[in-house]
Amino acid sequence: MKEVMAIVRMNKINQTKRALSAAGITSLHAKDCLGRGKGVVEMLQLGGAEKEYEEKMSELGNAGRLIPKRMLSVVVPDKLVKKVVDTIIETNKTGKSGDGKIFVMPVMEAIRVRTGETGDETLDE
After folding, report:
1. pLDDT digits (tens, 9 = 90+) for 65-115
2. pTM for the full predicted model
3. Beta bridge partners of 29
4. How far is 69 from 97, CA to CA, in rounded Å?
5. What is the Cα–Cα distance from 15 to 12, expressed in whole angstroms?
6. Distance of CA 24 to the CA centre of its chain
7. Fewer Cβ atoms within 10 A, N terminus or C terminus of the chain?
């Protein structure tokens, strides 16, 4: 079992959920978060960038501020990791700074509280 954690743009979350669902991955968690990568952001420009104004996105400057993102967490059997990662990349890749990051981590155990099932039985197949 693996957890695929992805940090994506706020405006890509609904597309990502739909794409994962179409790929057969219906179970996920999402939460708002703040962060930044190697690039730095000038907050005065961020308002236009959040509204997807292309010119404002290209003008983001050099102030090291945190920007709003979404964090997705998907726990899947090992055989589905590539499908999840490829789906997230395909949906979120724009070729511009800020497209996000994906982390894949081992999960030692999963237990469904309602039934007591354990392991891969608790996950999407």
Report:
1. 788 999 999 999 999 999 999 999 999 999 888 899 999 999 999 999 999
2. 0.78
3. 73
4. 13
5. 5
6. 17
7. C
